[in-house]
Amino acid sequence: MKRSARQRRDFLATAALLLLVAAAAPAVAGGPSWCLPPLFEGGQRLHAMPAPTAFWLAPLLRQHELCHAARARPDEPRAILIGNSAVFGHPLPAAAALGGRLNQLLAVHGVPGRVYNLGWVNAYELRDAVILNAALDYQPDLIIYPLTLADFQHGAPSLFEPIAAFFASNDSAVRDLARARPAGLEEPFDRYESAYAHGWRAQGYWARLRDLGTLARTAAQTNATALARWADPTLRPPVYGTTGRVKTYDCLEVTEREELTYRDWQSWNVLAYLDQLRASSGVQVLVVNWPVAYEPVGACFNARHSAAAIEEFNRWLRAECAARNLPFVDLHDLLAADQFFDSIHPIAEGHRRIAEQLAPAVESALRVRRADAQRTSTP
């Protein structure tokens, strides 16, 4: 029997109410009291492929497998993987991306614990800091943070629509973090605080209402898709693409754009915030120099960056991690250009190779955390 329009509206209203209540319930020391049903690839991701349609972190984290693990297996070591669309794994399914590959290796090697992919499309260190701060409620043992120069774009408050939508939906979380004075990021978060004071605050209420409606519809669609695949196992998930590799470009345009977008990029420093978190919470950190495709034209490294800027970033990231004693894995030259979909997104084989290089450091950190937990729990 087909549902009436009123029944569909009632379903969506009920789902939205449940999402609102779940999002408002704080995580507690023993783990979250409850989680939402997983929405995105079984809860393996924070948002849908290929891009988010809802931006409010509270319910998005509640549907993630991180929430379910923290609730069902609070003593199991947990590593969170944060970063841009390349870390998210676009355009691959979650199992073929870095997080899924690392979990396969952890299982093969008998390592206790799991990696949880909290990647988000678009590159922006301030957005990553907000996600990381929110994820601390789920008591991670290790933060894995792959970085490229693209993450250090110098703009706040951002006018890039998906980033602006994120900061509108999460205004309370952003203001809480701004008041905590995140090391290395105080000035840009002050800019967001000023933007909220001049009108963004009102946008946040409506943005969250929109997100709740989107998530309720997503829940209904996810349920319908699961039923359809149960009825017809031959159905396959959609395949997504990228813009593709750009081998021919105007290097002068690249450098001019770079000068505007990455002006004084070192003055906002998410590594200082990671150092601060490690000192205050005891959570371990692993910084990764993520590989990017080398497709030179003139003085440019690729269609995104000049060769000089990439070289400067590589030197700075290594030196900054050394100065702060942050564990660091340098993979900037690991992959050949043909192992990328474009300049920043590796193909499945690229993710496999990255996972193999990172696995020893991840495994070691999780084993140490398990041993430390066992020592403290032993009378």
Key phrases:
five-stranded parallel sheet, 13 helices, 52% helix, 379 residues
Describe the fold and architecture.
With 379 residues, the chain is α/β, with parallel strands linked by helices. It has a single domain, classed as SGNH hydrolase (Rossmann fold, 3-Layer(aba) Sandwich). The chain has 13 helices and five strands. The protein has helices at 5-24, 57-63, 65-72, 85-88, 98-108, 125-135, 161-169, 171-179, 186-231, 251-261, 270-281, 307-324, 348-377, and strands at 78-81, 114-117, 142-147, 284-289, 328-330. The protein has a five-stranded parallel β-sheet, sandwiched between helices. Strand 4 (284-289), helix 12 and strand 5 (328-330) form a beta-alpha-beta unit. Helix 1 (5-24) crosses helix 2 (57-63). The radius of gyration is 21 Å and the shape is globular. The termini are far apart.
